[in-house]
Write a structure and sequence with these properties.
By secondary structure, this protein is mainly alpha-helical. It has two domains: 46 residues, no CATH class; 34 residues. Helix content is 45%, strand content 7%. Strands 1-2 form a two-stranded antiparallel ribbon. Strand 1 and strand 2 form a beta hairpin. The longest helix is centred in the C-terminal third of the chain and has 31 residues.
Length: 110
């Protein structure tokens, strides 16, 4: 497991749940939370004035009449991490193929 001072490599194991949200994920989350808090704060009022959640910059998008959260306003993963994950995945596939090939050759030798 990677700790604070360790360098991240293709063989590193990282618990992604421990990473803080990036700015692009945090930016649409804050207005959604603000909208919920505004509803709770005004819950005792008979006429509730609030912005529509699907208005621009509110953290929600409206698709076919259904509200869905905007999860990120940019890329979810940095390009360098995507490249690292692709490399790791290809290496694992190559290792599995080598193991499979070596198992076949052992069976054929018998």
């Amino acid at each position: 497991m990677v700790v604070q001072d360790d360098k991240l490599t293709a063989k590193s194991k990282v618990d992604l749940a421990c990473l803080p949200p990036c700015y692009d994920a945090l930016k649409p989350h804050v207005p959604r939370v603000n909208h919920h808090v505004a509803l709770y704060k005004r819950a005792d009022e008979s006429i509730l004035e609030k912005p529509n959640p699907y208005e621009e910059e509110q953290g929600w998008m409206r698709t076919d009449g259904v509200l869905r959260p905007v999860w990120s306003c940019g890329p979810v993963l940095p390009t360098s991490l995507v490249d690292l994950l692709d490399t790791t995945e290809r290496e694992q596939e190559d290792e599995e193929e080598e193991e499979f090939d070596s198992d076949d050759s052992i069976e054929n030798d018998d």
